[in-house]
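Hallway conversation turned thread

IA: we were arguing at lunch whether anyone had actually written out VWCE protein end to end. Turns out nobody had. So, for the record, here is the sequence (269 residues) and right after it the C-alpha cells. Reply here if something looks off.
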Amino acid sequence: RGIPREPGARWTEPGCQSCTCQGGQVLCDTVSCSVPCSHPLPAPAGGCCPTCTGCLHEGVARDDGDVFSPSDGNCTVCVCLAGNVSCLSPECPPGSCPSPSLADCCSCNPDKCNFRGHTYAHGARFSLDGDDCTTCVCQGGEVECSFTPCPVLDCPQHQRHLGPGQCCSTCRDPPAPAGCFLDDNGVEFPVGQIWSPGDPCELCICQADGSVSCQRTDCVETCPYPIRIPGQCCPDCSAGCTYMGRIFSNNETFPSALDPCLSCICLVR
C-alpha cells in the first residue's frame, strides 16, 4: 500500500487484521483477542478487542465496582468486578415467612392465624366477638389487635355522649337557651321579653335563640312647642304647653313671668 515495512515488523490494518512482514511478503490474519472476563465491554472506538475495565450485563454497561439488581431478580444483588458479574440471592426459609422483610423477597406462603377457635388468612382483618370497637389483623401467624381511633371532639366534657353500640363519643347539641343573659348588668330576660336598655327611644326583645334584637323608634310627629315627658321617647304635641320650665294643660291660663299684668293661655294647635 505504498508504505515500506521492515522485516519482522507487525501492525494492525483496518478491520482488525494483524499483519507482519516476512521475507518480503505481507502476511495478515484476524486479530486474536484474549478476554479473561465473563462480561466484557465492547471494544472502544478504534480498538479491536473487548475490555474488562467494566461489565456489560443485560445490555447495560456497568462500571467496575457497581452494585445493582437485575430486572427480573427477586431481591438478587449483583456486583461488577474486573469484567465479571457476581450475583447473590437471599436465602429464603422453607414454608412460612418469618418476617415481612423476607416476605417481600421470598416466594412463600405466610402462616394462617388460629385465634379464639377461628382460622384467619394472612392479612385478614376482623373484630372481636361482641366488640366492634377493636380491630384485629392476621400477620404471619400472629394476631395484632388495636382499638378504633376516635376523632378529637371540640365540645366540653359535659356535652359528650357515648351511645349504645358506639365506639366513640359524640357531642350533644347544647340545650336551648331559656332566655337572654346580659353580661354587663347580670340581668336575664325570658324569651319574648321587651325592655328599654336606658334610652326610651330604643326597645329590645329577647329572641328564642338567646340573642337580643334592638330597634330605635323614629319620632314623626312635630309641632312648634313640643312637650318632653320624662321616660317617654317622642315629644307630645297634645299634652299642653311648656312655659319657663313648667307644663300647662290646654286652655289653661297663667300669669306671664315677664309682666305680672299680662295673662297667658295655653292653646294647642
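OS: looked through it. The first helix runs from residue 100 to 105.
IA: good, adding that to the notes. Residues 117-146 form one domain.
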